[in-house]
Amino acid sequence: MDEVILKVRDLTVVLDSLDKTFRILDKISFDLKKGETLGVVGESGCGKSMLASAIMGLTSKPLRIDGGSVVFKGEELIGLPEKKLRYYRGKKIAMIFQDPMTSLNPIIKCGSQIVETILAHEKVSKKEAKERSLRLIREVGLDNANEIYNKIPAQLSGGQRQRIVIAMALSCSPDLIICDEPTTALDVVIQKQILNLIKRLVQETRASCIFISHDMGVIADMSDKVMVMYAGQVVEHADQKAVFENPAHPYSKALQASLPQKAKGKERLHEIPGSVPLPDNMPKGCLFADRCPLADSRCKEQRPDLTNNNGHFCRCFKEQEQIG
Amino acid sequence: MRKYLLKRIGLAIGIVFAISLITFIILNIIPGDPAALMLGDMASPETIAKLREQMGLDRPLPEQYIAWIFRLITGDLGNSYFQKKPVLELIGYALYYTSRLAICAYAIALIIGITSGVIAAVFQGKAVDRILMTIAIMGISAPAFWVAILLQIYIALNFDIFPVSGANEPIGFVLPSIALGSRYAASIARITRTSMIETMNQDFIKTARAKGLKNYRIILVHALRNALLPIVTVIGSDIGSLLAGAMLTESVFNIPGIGKLLIDAINKRDLPIVQGTVMYIATVCVLIYLIVDILYAVIDPRIKLGEGSSE
Fold first, then answer.
1. Is some CB atom of chain A closer than 8 A to the CB atom of B302?
2. How far apart are CA B130 and CA B128, in angstroms?
3. Residues of chain A under the 50 pLDDT cut
4. Which pLDDT tens digit goes with each residue over B74-103?
5. Is-contact A54 A26, C-beta < 8 A?
């Protein structure tokens, strides 16, 4: 049916320290079809942002891509020279970052920051690029485009800045937009506006989207498919509906239980005890075992594999036992 | 912006006045009677007293200070005791040499300093970086007059095109400029490197990379302009001290600049020149800092916004 535009296989990122190498991303694999949105969810430190950087080839020292493949529209991106990667960055794959306070250059006019993206990829005149930027600024819901064009980021609010970042990402009509927690730094009302804007624009442009968030509610709202990550591994991966209505992995269940909407009345919000293990202190068995209510001795000794149950991937012995 | 400007200018004027007072007091505290000095050992006390009266040295100090300040404002710095010329004219003549030397030296320093700082930052940790920074440390540690002497011995004496001393032709400025500029180049290189590395780690650099911009554009437009802010501050104080005259370098190469003028005047106790030169140096420094503050606001538009901005 729809073509697969992004095919990620066994993508692995490691961190080189002086004497040891730690695995930050452990063999991530997924497909993304045209027009589809993949939600990537997990706590801080799960490797979500690292995944985004790795796809764009933006990992920098001391991190390093250590195997795997990222095939975008038939071309392998891993190992591609910088010069060729530049063609994809910004033009074919755009990125929306977490914090609009720091992701825009503080001393360059917002308009110019959009214009330079267009000029970097397309042979158009400066005037045309400027006109398109103004159109983009209006499109992302900023009315006084001419005024905003000439402002520096410090003169805009957080929501306005994030709209500029979105305009910048859309400037070359990319096929894939990677949103790395685009609303985390914004307050709730603005969050909703920005989410709706991204949703609308992704639908209109028929672009595919990787939407990264730690917020299960946002993920439910935005995604067609959901990938739950934990400590650099995929622990569950399935259609949005399947993950939310019938979560398989104890971590996914726990994440959902911690959503305020799910807690009824005066019930205390559920919290997951402990925190994500650090790369230098990974448990021997299942990475989630120490925090899992179901874990038994086998979970603490062996690492489960990601198993496929009719397109619903899950990395859990308990789940496998139930099915098997 | 206007409020910011007025505040800076007011502060600058205040500082110049404070310096004038301090200069006046110090020069009147140190022993030695200018009138006696001018007339020499053979003068009788009567003639000295007469000259003191003529020069206004017998009047109370506050009165002398106020009279001096009024003359200062009208641009009258008095006459040199020994050269019998207006101090202003002497400073102007010296300034011609000093500023030429300063501009040449600093142009060299900026070009070499910023370029090598950026290169070192881009190749952080690699061999190029280490070599450049080793040279920079040597450059900072080597006193300018020593570099000057080395240049005289090894370059000027071996190559006829460079004169050993004097500055009547433009070519005469080459070696002094290198001697004077090398230290500044070294410190600019180090500051540029640090500032660039810090800026290159900022989020907006990642954005620029994610936009698919070319490397040179990321480095020069996005990183360098942000990294320049701390550099502008040192540029200011450097130029201030350069225009104050490079006493040692000027002495070694025998260039009749401000530094040499001041040293000669101090040796001869030519008080009007000392007073005038010190006031000149103070004013230049204050002015340069004022310009730096304004430049800062131009480079970083956030400053223009004042405290009312959202940062």
1. yes
2. 6
3. 1
4. 888 888 878 888 988 999 999 888 888 899
5. no
Chain A CB contacts of B221 under 8 Å are 108, 116
With an 8 Å Cβ cutoff, are B210 and A165 in contact? no
Question: Which of helix, strand or coil describes residue A39?
Answer: strand
Would you say A131 and A67 are in contact if contact means Cβ atoms under 8 Å apart?
no
The answer, yes or no, to whether residue B307 has pLDDT greater than 50, is no
- Closest residue of chain A to B301, computed from CA coordinates: A107
Residue B118: its pLDDT value, please? 95
For A9, other C-beta atoms within 10 Å of its C-beta total 15
The token pair that represents B193 in the structure block: 């490197």
Q: Which two tokens stand for residue B1?
A: 């912006």
Domain boundaries, chain B: 97-308
Which of A94, A103, A121 is opposite residue B203, by nearest beta carbon? A103
Render pLDDT for A236-259 as a digit per residue (tens, 0 to 9): 999 999 999 889 999 998 888 877
* Total domains in the fold of chain A: 1
Domain CATH code at residue A192? 3.40.50.300
From the list B125, B206, B223, the residue with the least C-alpha distance to A58 is: B206
Domain range enclosing A181: 33-61+80-92+174-323
CA-CA-CA-CA torsion for A157, A162, A164, A166, nearest 10 degrees? Answer: -170
Phi then psi dihedrals of residue B288, to 5 deg: -60, -45
Q: What's the average model confidence in pLDDT over B200-216? A: 92
Q: What is d(CA A39, CA A255) in angstroms, rounded to the nearest whole number?
A: 14
Distance, CA of A93 to CA of A101 (rounded, Å): 22
In angstroms, the CA A266 to CA B89 distance is 87
Does residue A10 lie within any of the structural domains?
no
Q: A70 forms bridges with which residues in the sheet? A: A8
Whether residue A1 lies inside any domain: the answer is no
Distance CA A55, CA A35 (A): 18
Interface of A with B (CB under 8 A): 56, 58, 82, 85-91, 94-95, 97, 99, 102-108, 116-117, 120-121, 152, 154-155, 157, 165, 168
DSSP state of A89: B
- The domain made up of B97-308 has a fold known as MetI-like fold (1.10.3720)
Task: Take residue A216 and report the two structure tokens written for it.
Answer: 């299960």
The packing angle between helices B127-141 and B87-122, to 10°, is 160
Give the contacts of A103 (CB within 8 A, at least 6 positions apart).
A97, A165, B203, B204, B206, B207
Q: Which of A53, A89, A105, A164 to mutate to test the interface with B (most CBs of B within 10 A)?
A: A105
Mean pLDDT of chain A: 89
Say how far apart CA B84 and CA B88 lie, in whole Å: 12
